[in-house]
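User: Here's a chain of 279 residues. Predict its fold as tokens.
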Amino acid sequence: MRIDLHVHTTASDGLLDPAALVAAVQAAKVQVFSVTDHDSVDGLDEAKRAADAAGISLVPGIELSAYWGTVEFHILGYFIDPANARLRAFLARTRDARHARLDAMLGRLQAMGIGVPAADVLARAKNGNVGRPHLARTLVQRGFVATKDEAFDRYLGTDKPAFVPRPDVSVRDAIEVIRKAGGIASLAHPGLHNRDEAIPDLIALGLTAMEVYHPKHGFGRTGRYRRLARRHELLVTGGSDFHGEGEGDHASTPGVPCLPEADFEKLESAVKAGRAGHS
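Assistant: Prediction complete.
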């Protein structure tokens, strides 16, 4: 069975709407997948309808951005209840903060002579869940840069002139809201952060899983995080981080890599045994 627990839709920074994403997942012969949009559950209902029609299984998920000190981590949540009131309130606050951040970044770009209307960026962000990738694509479309990577390298990346830090959501808050929504919290792509010293702290806060399989984890890193997961008695997750494009840190197709079926069965068993949080 092919299992991909990390894909994105236009509800965050993916390029495919939920129904089109499900079609791509089906074409890749993936039987189980999880939509893990950034700070949003807005794509889950449509994805569930399309998945049911296609005869494939959807695990409701999310990917939250949060800080451990000054280090930004992404925390994946699996088997969440998308209707959980606490989660919904948390996401509403996050969305408002994203809009304020966009305004600040546009102001910095304007000071450099780069005028970008907010409406152009927001038009790319369905449901208003706007992020730097939407701004980067707008800069490409308006001819200020040639590629999205160039937009980040010149303007939007950390410490670049138009970069504005995200509002400070702590890893404690992110893990807690996932658990309160009934989910399992997993550290996304730890190999991109290379801050393994944080893992014990995250476990103490309720982290119960780690994303071992990811497109940017080569054979060596996959083995390393597999060993770390075993050492810390963490469940194992993994997926393609598919956004509908083959650039940056994302796979060009769903299901590459896949999560081994045995690891998925352990996740399901943990949920049934109550190792997830409680709403």
